[in-house]
Amino acid sequence: MTPSYLSHFELREPPFSKELSDSDLWMPPSKLSLVDELCEALHQRASVVLVGEPGVGKTCVLRALRQRLPQAGFRLTYCHNATLGRRDFYRQLCLALGLTPSATAAAVFYAVTTHIEQLGQERLHPVFLLDEAHLLHQDVLDHLHILLNYQWDSKALLSLILVGLPELDSRLSRRHNRSLYSRLHTRLRIEPLTPEDTAEYLRVRLSRAGCQRELFASDAAAMLHEAASGALRDIDRLATSALREATRRKKKLVERDILARILDAEAATPLERP
Questions:
Q1: Distance between CA atoms of residues 170 and 160, nearest Å
Q2: Which tens digits make up the pLDDT trace of 38-47?
Q3: Angle at CA 61, nearest 5°, toward 94 and 223?
Q4: Sign, Cα dihedral of 95, 98, 102, 108
Q5: Domain boundaries 28-189, corresponding CATH code
Q6: Cα gap 181→167, rounded to integer Å
Q7: Is the pLDDT of residue 84 over 70?
Q8: pTM of the complete model beyond 0.85
Q9: Which residue from 271, 246, 247 is spatially nearest to 256, judged by alpha carbons?
Q10: Which of 12, 85, 176, 199 is most buried when burial is the number of CB atoms within 10 A of its CB?
């Protein structure tokens, strides 16, 4: 069913949906510079760790990287299930690469490393992107530096991008993980949006949905930014709720009192316990 706020505000589509093509992503200059740094690192065949709080746009940066990275020279493989043990992790990697997983851990590892070497012969640089990497089992972390070691550690045939919450940095910096951490030469952190970024984000997303006027009063946009702590995911959720509430109240502008009502309702709703 079409949300009523679309017709109320004359919008073609939900403006804050995550269902966007890579080419339609909007990012502030700070996040675009992160994409530039990621591309530069991969062109130098380096490995990367990228950390940030939940919802600040890590996935957006990775999608922009996928859009920017030339397919002619790179093979990007995305792995999102970080909670597997070492053998199952490599089996998942095999499947993502289009390989048939073998029965033993040694055979699976051999299949992956052989495939990487074959890609190198074809002048394709493989990039393994490991999302939610703060959840990786220790036995996987213990082994990843071996995956980066080719021809007596003289060839960079593979780049790893480890992406996760800030605690990933803490885990990697432990003495136990120094063999891997020392190979992650590019270490990046993604920060929340600034208030100006949030206001521009609201305008861009609404414009792409067909709205050519301001729907959020400036003080409401500032309150929204503060409530979301500059996290894109929370901005999307709160902005959508604000549009719904404004529609119920037959308002054509989201003002501060509407947002305050939403935040009060959220504060009064008890968190669900598992």
A1: 18
A2: 999 999 999 9
A3: 135
A4: negative
A5: 3.40.50.300
A6: 14
A7: yes
A8: yes
A9: 246
A10: 199
